[in-house]
Design goal:
The complex is a heterodimer of chains A (461) and B (404). Helices cover 69% and strands 0% of the residues of chain A. Chain A is mainly alpha-helical. Chain A has one domain (5-141, 163-457). In chain A, helix 2 (25-33) runs antiparallel to helix 16 (446-457), helix 4 crosses helix 14 (375-401) and helix 11 crosses helix 12 (349-361). The longest helix of chain A has 34 residues, at 165-198. Chain A is globular and about 70 Å long. Chain B contains 19 helices and no strands. The longest helix of chain B is centred in the middle third of the chain and has 32 residues, at 238-269. Classes of the chains: A mainly alpha (461), B mainly alpha (404).
Chain lengths: 461, 404
């Protein structure tokens, strides 16, 4: 066993493999676990966590104010009855999709580059779904009665309306959260065991020992593990598509121009993956720099993820093109035509063109290998996409609702400070949870990485 | 191997000529309306193979994979048949007024149609229809020609293999964008506009998925046939069939997903301009055909292909593929014919003769292209890896995941 490879010896060479082959099993495991098995939290992480914690305080304040006063403190009202609550819900749910795609679909497709980012992306999924869930939950106005959404036999003659996609959302999102959490935790067990084996303090040993659920790494454990992991991957795969398709139906089954169009389900799914990959990169690029993980999350990962963003971004653009073509040229429906013209040239035109710029124009830079290889530019593009995908939901929601069929009921929408506080609050909550995750849980799947090293180093594999 | 192909070719030619001749006779016997309806369906059915192949070929160049390498030559051979499809397309140009009510809206005594055509006329008119068709075929033939040319150069010239690989990759990126738009708008023009008042923004995507599905089904059969070839047989194994099977499975689910999405959205909205599509399909036997598709196109193949053993066994896989190719024809029938026959259902022998005829002729030309080149892209740099590890041939992916 050689000494752990330090960053200095690695230098700043660009690595063309999915993992630096100079790593040994030991050095790779140490590198991942050392982030956790140390008493010293890096200063930068402490600062970020502190800032995020303050924002979580803002979120708590907002929720308290919201619950005690009522959702009247939000800016949505007739005609824009749905606004920030749904925009942010869809935005967060979409972000979560990359985690599931990376962990499940790329696993089934045997893509090597999924290793070393899957754990991270799955954690992101779980926290993003938590943030997403907050919005509809609080939008019910009385979140303590949210269990009424479930078909629980009761004496009040209350029964959910199963014909509403909002109801399907309840089932889709809760299933999604459950399966994602299970999948994530199952994948963690072997790593928690290796943490347990390397823990030095008694407290760390006990906590990781309980969390590892008695994993000993016997052949039988591994055999069962492989089976359950494969099954969970198979179960998660349809969820990548179903959740966002159902979210899209929230809009598409209505009769409103701009919502009611058949391309919505696949185009929402593509958009979700697009924004999810952007968010994974937004987080992974600083983390890999900060913790010196460039030899584990390599250029090859960044390149592969950029290509996925490019492809899904083009599908999203195809969706915009279909919507515009059908509305302006092919449908001959005056309502559709008005909606699209209002979207493009009405009072919210700025949001539409900004959306096209963020989601359609700037990401085309990813065609160039030079851009994909330039980490800082890439990071900038991922942030642009995050903004673009948020704008997409803003455009869909607000431009459709603010001018409906009856001009006398037209209106404008602006978020209140509580809308904005709630949104920023969830971003802070997300950041805080990610910081906790980075500090306390191995953020790269160590045993999968060792397996990959084995494959790469053994000839004939 | 070449004898087998030659054998199938001659049969395909005979069937093709007979079918096409019968279709020609049908023009006289059954009248132009019937002829053009059947011909349009046959054309779209056969068009799926080169279109699906060109799309999958470009995806293959962008995303590496062993399943792609064993199918590359069938993709290329199919992509070369676009000129033949252009030939098949020409007769339709003489029957536009029989197929598309938008050609002459006043003749249909439909005020809504006339009103709608005031707006739509700027897109749906005969002249632009012609111009666009030329553009579509130019895009497809151009892309296919370049990709096949470079692939041929790669075969001849091992030293520059890398360079030609890069060229094909570069073209495929841009090419997919052009291809996707061309197929979408061709789908609108040729198929969606048979119901000129109706529109659905998912139509193009759904058509592309259906074409990919048909192509993969056909090529699962072709790959099984080619496996009798010594060299090809040495490379293709259980794992490749399993991969192809998984893709067929995935495309079939995707096709169903899109069909259901379209239905749920239009049915819930219940808007007069859209729901007409389903109203046309609401009288017997159309709903029964739809249920039949749900069960036999999706349900049963889905259940069978859930099992690994069906996808790994090329003989079973090929049978499922043949079945799905039959179902594809039923789907085109369901997509197109209610526009003409919703008041009075009928099934004509031309509906079978025309697709069989065109498919036979197409198969003849396709197999000719296929046999004219080696069955494997041996100089492809990605291929070195395949040849270096022949033992990978028979490992299933679950073994792959656990053997470390």
């Amino acid at each position: 066993m050689s000494a752990p490879v330090t960053d200095k010896s690695m230098g700043h060479v660009e690595i063309a493999e999915v993992v630096d082959l100079r790593h040994t099993y030991d050095s790779a495991t140490d590198k991942i676990n050392n982030v956790i098995l140390t008493k010293k939290t890096p200063m930068g992480l402490t600062i970020i966590m502190g800032v995020c914690f303050l924002i979580v305080g803002l979120l708590m304040t907002t929720i308290t104010k919201l619950v005690s006063t009522g959702i009247g403190i939000w800016g949505n009202n007739q005609p824009v009855a749905w606004a920030f609550d749904i925009i942010n819900f869809v935005w967060w749910i979409g972000i979560g999709h990359a985690g599931t795609l990376i962990s499940a679909i790329l696993f089934l497709f045997r893509q090597e580059w999924r290793t070393s980012i899957n754990r991270f992306a799955e954690a992101m999924t779980i926290f993003a779904v938590m943030c997403a869930g907050l919005f509809p939950l609080l939008h019910t106005g009385r979140p303590w009665l949210a269990y009424w959404l479930f078909p629980i036999p009761n004496v009040m003659q209350m029964w959910p309306q199963f014909r509403s996609p909002l109801m399907w959302d309840v089932f889709a999102v809760s299933t999604y959260f459950t399966v994602s959490a299970l999948f994530w935790y199952t994948g963690l067990i072997p790593d928690l065991a290796s943490l347990r084996d390397r823990a030095k303090t008694k407290v760390a040993k006990i906590i990781t020992g309980i969390a590892a659920m008695g994993w000993r790494g016997s052949a039988r454990h591994w055999q069962r593990y492989e089976i359950i992991y494969l099954l969970l991957a198979g179960l998660s795969t349809p969820l990548v598509v179903s959740v966002h398709s159902i979210v899209s139906l929230d809009f598409a089954v209505s009769q409103l121009p701009g919502w009611h169009t058949t391309i919505f389900p696949p185009y929402f799914v593509a958009g979700a993956i697009y924004s999810g990959f952007a968010m994974v990169l937004t987080l992974a690029i600083p983390v890999r720099k900060f913790f010196g993980f460039k030899d584990l999350i390599t250029q090859k990962h960044l390149d592969a993820m950029s290509k996925v963003m490019l492809a899904t971004g083009l599908i999203v653009l195809y969706g915009y093109a279909m919507e515009a073509f059908i509305a302006l040229v092919y449908s001959a429906n005056p309502h559709e035509e008005f909606l699209m013209k209002n979207r493009m040239f009405g009072p919210y035109a700025w949001s539409y063109w900004l959306l096209i710029l963020c989601n359609g124009v700037i990401p085309q830079l990813l065609w160039l290998k030079r851009v994909r290889m330039h980490t800082l530019t890439l990071w900038f593009i991922t942030i642009v996409i995050n903004i673009g995908m948020w704008l997409e939901r803003f455009v869909i929601l607000v431009t459709t609702l603010h001018r409906d069929f009856l001009p006398s009921s037209w209106g404008m929408y602006a978020p209140t400070k509580w809308d904005i506080a709630m949104f920023i609050g969830t971003v802070g909550f997300f950041g805080f949870m990610m910081c906790l995750f980075i500090r306390f849980i191995p953020m790269i799947a160590g045993f999968e990485l060792r397996e990959l090293l084995h494959k790469k180093k053994t000839p004939h594999h | 191997m070449n004898e087998t192909i030659q054998n199938i070719r001659s049969k395909a030619l005979v069937i093709g000529l007979l079918g096409t001749a019968a279709a020609g006779a049908g023009y006289v016997v059954a009248g132009p309306a019937q002829f053009f309806q059947s011909w349009l369906m046959a054309f779209l059915y056969v068009f799926a193979f080169p279109a699906g192949a060109l799309g999958l070929l470009m995806i293959h160049h962008l995303a590496t994979g062993r399943w792609g390498l064993v199918l590359q030559r069938p993709y290329e051979a199919a992509a070369r048949t676009f000129p033949l499809l252009a030939l098949f397309f020409i007769p339709l140009l003489f029957g536009l007024d029989h197929l598309y009510a938008w050609v002459n809206p006043a003749a249909h005594h439909d005020h809504v149609l006339e009103h709608v055509m005031h707006h739509k006329g700027m897109y749906l008119n005969v002249q632009d229809f012609h111009v666009r068709a030329v553009i579509y075929f130019a895009v497809w033939i151009g892309l296919a020609t370049l990709l096949v040319k470079w692939s041929r150069k790669q075969d001849e010239n091992k030293a520059d293999a890398e360079m030609y690989g890069r060229k094909m990759r570069m073209l495929s990126g841009i090419g997919l964008v052009a291809f996707g738009l061309a197929v979408t708008f061709a789908g609108f023009d040729w198929a969606m506009s048979v119901e000129p008042k109706w529109y659905s923004s998912i139509y193009g995507a759904m058509l592309m998925v259906a074409q990919g599905l048909a192509t993969l089904c056909l090529f699962a059969i072709i790959a099984y046939m080619l496996s009798a070839d010594k060299r090809y047989g040495a490379v293709i194994g259980t794992q490749q069939y399993h991969d192809i099977g998984n893709l067929i499975f995935a495309f079939n689910i995707l096709w169903t997903y899109m069909g259901v999405s379209q239905f749920v959205i239009i049915w819930s909205g219940n808007l007069p301009e859209e729901v007409e599509y389903y109203i046309h399909r609401s009288h017997a036997p159309w709903p029964e055909i739809a249920i039949g598709l749900a069960v036999f196109h999706f349900g049963i193949p889905f259940a069978l292909m859930l099992m690994k053993s069906t996808k790994k066994n090329p003989r079973i896989l090929a049978r499922i593929a043949v079945w799905l190719l039959v179902m594809r024809l039923v789907d085109y029938f369901w997509m197109l014919m209610p526009a003409f026959r919703h008041k009075e259902f009928h099934l004509h022998w031309l509906d079978l003769a025309a697709p069989v005829g065109l498919f036979g002729l197409w198969l003849y030309v396709f197999l000719g292209f296929l046999k004219s080149r080696p069955f494997l892209p041996l100089n492809d740099p990605r291929f070195a890896d395949v040849l270096a590890h022949p033992e990978h041939k028979d490992t299933g992916w679950e073994a792959d995941a656990s053997d470390a």
